[in-house]
Design brief:
- By secondary structure, the protein is an alpha/beta fold.
- The longest helix is centred in the last third of the chain and has 19 residues, at about 405-420.
- It is built from 16 helices and 16 strands.
- Strands 9-10-11-12-13-14-15-16 form an eight-stranded parallel beta barrel, surrounded by six helices.
- Helix 9 (about 260-270) packs parallel to helix 10 (about 290-300).
- The protein folds into two domains: about 10-180 and about 405-420, 3-Layer(aba) Sandwich (Rossmann fold); about 185-395, Aldolase class I (TIM Barrel), CATH 3.20.20.70.
- Magnesium ion binds near residues 15, 132 and 133.
Length: about 425
């Protein structure tokens, strides 16, 4: 059918990925029948989120016990009905052959994945395969899909060169989500917003590069705390790699000197790395002394600034005045930290906006959001920018979601998790 876009899939191995296995002599064994099927923790939630992101979910499973006469086709159907009753699966592809059979589908051969791609019109390059054995990872590699190895430390040969090693399907979600967003099939939340632009806040290079493909991300911010958390050891090489990936939108990097001369020197250096660089200057030094003079000096030098860590309106007044004449500046008020203290940040941000908008080329940024509600709040009062952490960005697809649908999903989650846990009363 012409004009149909191919959709990405997540191929899921069955035993040890979706349902529990028993390990005997270092080898994982499938449950003998449907009555012994137990979903692994987090599987319902993970599948629901992948389904919501638009992935086609395809189980690809070797079941050689059929060829070996140890399993019946009827029981296998019941086991798969157990899965389809609980998970939003699109397809279950089974290889029933044994090692000696000359089939194209027994993993590590890629036949199950390739056939499903033809049948379901899948985009393999945007697809993932999640498995707990080397056969799964090798099948993924041979099919050209991104491989995720759930290493359960069985006493057998391990998978080699998987794109990700994870402890569970749920554990692999952030990786899939970070790759997914570069595909462009993500709902563009920006289109639903009146004023506020979304900046991505994070320091993981791979995530930043992935997010660069999203048109609804209007800029990028980072800070030394996030960089340290992401294991960045060398500041400048990291920053230059980010700036190679992001050339068309603002990127903020922070000075870490604590004296005025050191801040000015570092700011000039950082600004020289690219035209789209904004230099972050904290509102005070570590002794609480205002950096307004530094801000004035750098503004006179035509350095674009992002003044950060503001929490009060007097700070907004002082910083905005110091930015007089700027060619481009951002004032970052930490609304989430204000909320952390039990204060409502919305009136503060409303007043802050009145102050910053009186100064040409100064934008107000809502920093440290805690939930997607903050995107709505920032937009409603007309804040220019909100920084959203990479973790929180993963929840943006929920923006504006039908509450009836969300309620139903919640009810199903409780039901499925109780069933998966095997609770009886
Ligand atoms: Mg398995």
């Amino acid at each position: 059918m012409s004009g149909t876009t191919r959709r990405p899939a997540v191929f899921l191995d069955r035993d040890g990925v979706l349902n529990e296995v028993t390990v005997s002599g270092g080898t994982p064994l499938p449950p003998p029948d449907a009555a012994h099927m137990r979903l692994l923790p987090g599987v319902v939630e993970a599948c629901r989120r992948l389904h919501d992101l638009g992935y086609v979910l395809v189980v690809v499973t070797n079941q050689p016990d059929l060829a070996r006469g140890k399993q019946s086709a009827g029981e296998l159907d019941r086991m798969h009905a157990f899965l389809t009753d609980r998970l939003p699966l699109d397809d279950i592809a089974v290889c029933t052959h044994d090692d000696a059979d000359d089939c194209a589908c027994r993993k590590p051969r890629p036949g199950l994945l390739l056939d499903a791609a033809d049948r379901l019109n899948l985009d393999l390059t945007g697809s993932f395969m999640v498995g707990d054995r080397w056969r799964d990872v090798e099948a993924a590699q041979r099919a050209g899909v991104t491989s995720i190895y759930i290493d359960r430390d069985y006493g057998e040969r391990k998978a080699v060169d998987a794109d990700l090693v994870a402890s569970s399907l749920l554990d692999a979600l952030p990786f899939i989500e970070s790759r997914h967003v570069s595909g462009g099939s993500q709902p563009v939340v920006g289109a639903a917003l009146k004023h506020v632009k979304i900046f991505a806040d994070g320091a993981d290079l791979e995530s930043i590069v992935a997010l660069a493909g999203r048109p609804d991300i209007a800029g990028f911010t980072t800070n030394p705390t996030l960089m340290r958390k992401s294991g960045v050891s060398d500041y400048e090489p990291f920053a230059r790699k980010v700036l190679e990936a992001i050339t068309d939108r603002p990127v903020s990097f922070e000075v870490f000197a604590d004296d005025p001369d050191g801040m000015i020197r570092q700011a000039r250096l950082i600004a020289s790395w690219g035209r789209n660089v904004y230099v972050k200057i904290p509102v005070t030094d570590t002794r609480g002394r205002s950096t307004a003079d530094v801000i004035r000096q750098l503004t006179a030098d035509r350095v674009q600034l992002n003044v950060t860590a503001l929490l009060t309106l007097p700070q907004v007044e002082e910083v905005t005045a110091a930015l007089d004449g700027t060619r481009g500046a951002v004032v970052s008020v930490f609304a989430g930290r204000i909320a952390d203290t039990g204060r409502d940040p919305v009136p503060v941000m409303t007043d802050a906006l009145r102050i910053t908008s009186a100064q040409a080329n100064v934008k107000l940024l809502w920093a440290s959001p805690r939930e997607i509600l903050n995107v709505r709040q920032a937009d409603d009062i007309g804040v220019d920018i909100i920084t959203v952490t990479h973790d929180l960005l993963a929840k943006l697809p929920l923006f504006g979601k039908s509450l009836d649908d969300y309620s139903l999903e919640t009810v199903r989650m409780f039901h499925n998790d109780a069933a998966a846990a095997g609770y009886t009363l």
